[in-house]
Design a protein that fits this description.
Order of helices and strands: HHHEEH
Largest sheet: 2 strands, antiparallel
Number of strands: 2
Number of helices: 4
Length: 116
């Protein structure tokens, strides 16, 4: 996971929040003794925009970018739709999340880990 993932703030009470990531890491950490060193943590990276274009239409990427730009300009949460809020840190969080997944897949493909 990349630290920028915590920058996606969606407002009070929304399930997508940094606390959710913290809870996941805490649960994995608590289970580590039982996993006997079988879990490796890697810091992710940001995805490149050409990588995003492989799975998302250009219009979608631009819409998210524009929404986050409005969130930065207003320093507020701006909604893409009724359930999807974007904050000033959401663009970096999205790039970090996508890049972390790509890095995990690359690690499996390279044989560095068995699964991710």
């Amino acid at each position: 996971m990349h630290p920028d993932c915590a920058g996606h703030l969606t407002g009070p009470g929304h399930p997508e929040c940094p606390d959710r990531l913290d809870a996941l890491l805490t649960a994995v950490g608590a289970a580590l003794p039982d996993l006997d060193g079988r879990v490796k943590f890697f810091e992710g990276r940001h995805a490149a925009e050409d990588e995003l274009a492989l799975v998302h239409p250009e219009g979608h990427v631009e819409r998210v970018r524009a929404t986050v730009a409005r969130a930065r300009e207003t320093n507020a949460i701006v909604f893409l739709d009724p359930d999807t809020g974007a904050s000033p840190g959401s663009w970096d969080a999205a790039l970090a999340a996508a890049g972390s997944v790509i890095g995990a897949v690359d690690s499996v493909a390279a044989g560095a880990v068995r699964n991710a």
